[in-house]
């Protein structure tokens, strides 16, 4: 069984806490890894597995929340998930509060990992959170 430490990539960018949420296989791990390669650390919150709508706030306390969106078909294809539409829909329900509260929503279906990373970096620069 995974521990909280293995489920969360933790750190801060300067004084700004960054968190990433989204359904399974939306690209959270890839984005966290990509940001880390740029010296930017982000907390990957597995909100999609929690019934507590505000878990992302309690665990991450983010100043900047990234929501990665991907369709059921894309998520299923990326991770070869053996799940049903209703499982995916339940994840979306659990993520609804985070989605409404996010600072940046990135639709990842048709984007490469590099393109998702660039969209996030561009928004962080525009908000003057990174140089």
Describe the secondary structure blueprint for this structure.
Elements: H1 4-7, E1 18-21, H2 28-37, E2 43-44, H3 55-60, E3 64-69, H4 72-79, H5 85-101, E4 104-107, H6 113-126
Parallel strand pairs: 1-2, 1-3, 3-4
Keywords:
single chain; 4 strands; alpha/beta; 131 residues; 6 helices; 45% helix
Can you describe this structure in just a few lines?
This protein has 131 residues and is of the alpha/beta class. The protein has helices at residues 4-7, 28-37, 55-60, 72-79, 85-101, 113-126; strands at 18-21, 43-44, 64-69, 104-107.
Describe the structure.
This protein has helices spanning 4-7, 28-37, 55-60, 72-79, 85-101, 113-126, and strands at residues 18-21, 43-44, 64-69, 104-107. The chain is α/β, with parallel strands linked by helices. The longest helix has 17 residues, at 85-101. Helix 2 links the parallel strand 1 and strand 2 (43-44). Helix 2 (28-37) packs across helix 6 (113-126). The chain has one domain (8-126): P-loop containing nucleotide triphosphate hydrolases (Rossmann fold), CATH 3.40.50. A four-stranded parallel sheet has the order 2-1-3-4, sandwiched between helices. The N and C termini lie far apart (39 Å). The model is unreliable at 1-13 (pLDDT under 50). The chain is globular and about 40 Å long. It is built from six helices and four strands, in the order αβαβαβααβα.
């Amino acid at each position: 069984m995974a521990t909280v430490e293995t489920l969360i990539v933790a750190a801060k960018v300067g004084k700004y806490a960054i968190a990433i949420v989204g359904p399974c296989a939306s690209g959270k791990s890839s984005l966290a890894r990509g940001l880390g390669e740029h010296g930017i650390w982000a907390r990957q919150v597995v909100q999609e597995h929690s019934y507590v709508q505000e878990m992302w706030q309690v665990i991450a306390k983010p100043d900047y929340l990234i929501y990665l969106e991907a369709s059921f078909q894309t998520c299923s294809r990326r991770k070869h998930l053996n799940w049903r539409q209703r499982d995916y829909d339940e994840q979306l329900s659990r993520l609804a509060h985070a989605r409404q509260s996010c600072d940046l929503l990135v639709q990842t279906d048709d984007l490469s990992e590099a393109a998702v990373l660039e969209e996030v970096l561009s928004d962080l620069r525009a908000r003057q959170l990174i140089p």
